[in-house]
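User:
I study polymers; will you set down one protein's sequence and backbone structure tokens?

Assistant:
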Amino acid sequence: MKTTARRLPAAPVALAAALLTAFLVLFAPLSASAHDSMLASSPEADSTVDTLPAELTLTFSAKLIDETGATEVVVTDPSGDSVAEGAATVEGAIVTQQLSTEAPAGAYHVIWKVVSSDGHPTSGEFDFTVANSTDAAPTAEPSAEPTDTATAAPAPTTTAGPGTDATPAPESDDSPASTTLIWVLAIAGVLIGGIVVWLVVRGRRGPASTDSDVPSER
């Protein structure tokens, strides 16, 4: 018995092949271009660097769209504070973010967001570690406590009021020595005066007494 193979019509097979080819040509490039990815970073993800570099760079698989707000990069230190300086810049497929020159040691976290060449946004994040701090040493603040050496307070100055003479008054002569001298001089004056008076009175009485002693002639 002779068996014959059944052949399919050529038209449907050709149509199916054409549709498959069209699908691959049209949709495969779109699916590939919708997933531009980050190829490298500096510092690298999960790496350890000596000190925090002056800038962080991200390299992508295709040229990025550079528009206002399209690219954002956030870099935080171990305490969660941002160490990014200014906005990130885009040059082709490379994103550059300036970093602070003073930063502590520890784990750093990076979050990035870009817009791919086909207009679709994409984002990601990674960590790296800084071994040594570049923080400036804090300056010692002056102590507010008073020193042990006491400062002598200035003597209060007396300001002469209006209408008063600033010349010091002369010292009084009413001292005990001056009072005693006055009394001695006064007593001496009285004694001398009394003696003078007594001598004068006696001198006047002397001749009268002599005449009375001569007997009168009868």
Residues 27-33, 208-214 have pLDDT under 50 and may be disordered.
